[in-house]
Amino acid sequence: MANVEAEQDEQRWIAETLERLSHSKFRAKFVLSDKDRAYARAKGKAIINRHAHEMLHDRVGAAEPKNDGRQTPWRGHPVFTAQHATATCCRGCIEKWHHIPQGRALTDEETNRLADLVMAWIERDLIHHPVQ
Q1: Whole-angstrom distance, CA of residue 10 vs CA of residue 44
Q2: Which domain holds residue 12?
Q3: Is residue 97 exposed (0-12), middle (13-18) or buried (19+ Cβ within 10 Å)?
Q4: Which InterPro entries match (predicted)?
Q5: pLDDT greater than 70 at residue 22
Q6: What letter would DSSP give residue 56?
């Protein structure tokens, strides 16, 4: 029962966070390119989810990430676009939007939660842009 409640809490947090981000003109303008949608569909959810975890861990997970504020490309992978849309692109945005302080490494739980948010954003984009 506790797992069901935890999952419901997580889903509620994701929905509320995506709603809050949608009110930002900057965050709301992001959508996946046709190429990124095709890539995400071809690779599948499991692989894109693994990429999200790896990219968050490697690019923003450290206490002081290399080139922080400039380390996440604007395009080239669906996770990159989703990171900008979900404010998980740099430690400054993560602190501002998700209240995770800079200057310390992200925990595995924080990385997982941010990756879940990135994946929810990607999945929502794919649903809103069905294959033609």
Answers
A1: 22
A2: 2-128
A3: middle
A4: DUF4186
A5: yes
A6: I
Supply the DSSP string of 57-116, one letter for each residue: IIII-SSS-TTTTS-S-SSSSHHHHHHHHTT-SSHHHHHHHH---SSSPPPHHHHHHHHH
φ/ψ region of 116 (left if φ > 0, alpha if ψ in -120 to 50, else beta) reads alpha
Q: What is the pLDDT of residues 75-121, one digit of tens each?
A: 899 999 999 999 999 999 999 999 999 999 999 999 999 999 999 99
Number of domains in the chain: 1
Give me the torsion for CA of 11, 17, 21, 22, rounded to 10°.
50
Sign of CA dihedral 96, 5, 16, 29: positive
User: Which pair of tokens denotes residue 47?
Assistant: 């692989």
Q: pLDDT band for position 1 (50/70/90)?
A: low
